[in-house]
Amino acid sequence: MTVFLRADQIDWALEKLREGHPVGLPTETVYGLAGLALDEKSLAKIFKIKNRPHFDPLIVHVLDATQARDLVSEVSALQEKLMRNFWPGPLTILFKRNSSVPDLCTAGSDWVAIRSPAHPVFRALLKKLGKALAAPSANRFGRISPTTAEQVVEELGTFGLEAVVDGGVCERGIESTVVKVLNDREIEVLRPGAVSIEKIAECVGKTVEIRMVSTAISSSVEAPGQLASHYAPRTPLDFIEDLSSIDQWKKQDLSAMALLLVTPVSEWSKLGWKFSEILSANSSDTEAASRLFGSLRRLDGMGFKKIVALKTSDIGLGIAINDRLRRAGSK
Ligand code: TXA
Ligand code: MG
Q1: pTM for the complete prediction?
Q2: Which of 59, 162, 271, 324 has its Cα between 20 and 30 A from that of 176?
């Protein structure tokens, strides 16, 4: 049985964490399954509860840049700038780790991924604990990330999760952007997320090149955690990238299928779907991102033969939304 804790009952969660038991915690992006980042026993439990393969490293959550510095061997000027501009918030930055960070946390890599979450409940815990917390999204491996405490229990309740702190619905609804700073002039985006690439570009200026490396999907483990099939609903999902394929859909029986639109696309809505949903009627990318996973989860529970999702434009958070839908549809 998983215990639901109110946001003002974090002392019990703290006790669990200190004893080495992972706890579900709210962040501004999605709920995380948190455990002591420097404690191998806690890390092993996180992998076990999530059924996560050990080659997929975890993000370490810290209160601030000072706490991050304790975990890394060096901080470049560009990394410093990113921390100053985006923390606390949904930007995860890779650093060269120091020897305090266990191999299990980074999957043996020399790089450790660190972010400072903005959610007040998570921050209150970090402050009282005085230690960094590793936290992957609180879903079983390959499934849709949870954005409410109830969904955390649905995902992990029967797999040994002892407690979740209820911090309400996650405001951003989509995971952090993960970046690797190669040098003063190059940044790689390993996972598009809640901080748009445009915002990063604005911060670092024109002299820094920002490259997306995550859109090329392969099932190899070169980019850990970026496996093609991820965020998967149980209902088959078709992700339509080429909107001119509409004529083929007109010929099909759509009466048991649901259409998922990021923004309104009337030609597609008019077809004979059983159900259709628009993530943001007024085409706001932040609203669409915040509703994406909840909507996928709900549609998944409605018994359709298929969910058909349309690509949105690759602008702002559109890149991250398309990335999640593409993976949700990957077989
Ligand atoms: O918003 C978020 O980032 C949420 C909340 C809970 O903070 N966390 C999250 O964690 O999405 P997770 O484990 O579901 O995704 C972490 C991603 C994975 O794609 C993983 O491979 C990548 O970050 N990652 C973590 N450490 C890495 C490392 N050392 N090198 C390369 N990629 C890394
Ligand atoms: Mg995840």
Answers
A1: 0.95
A2: 162
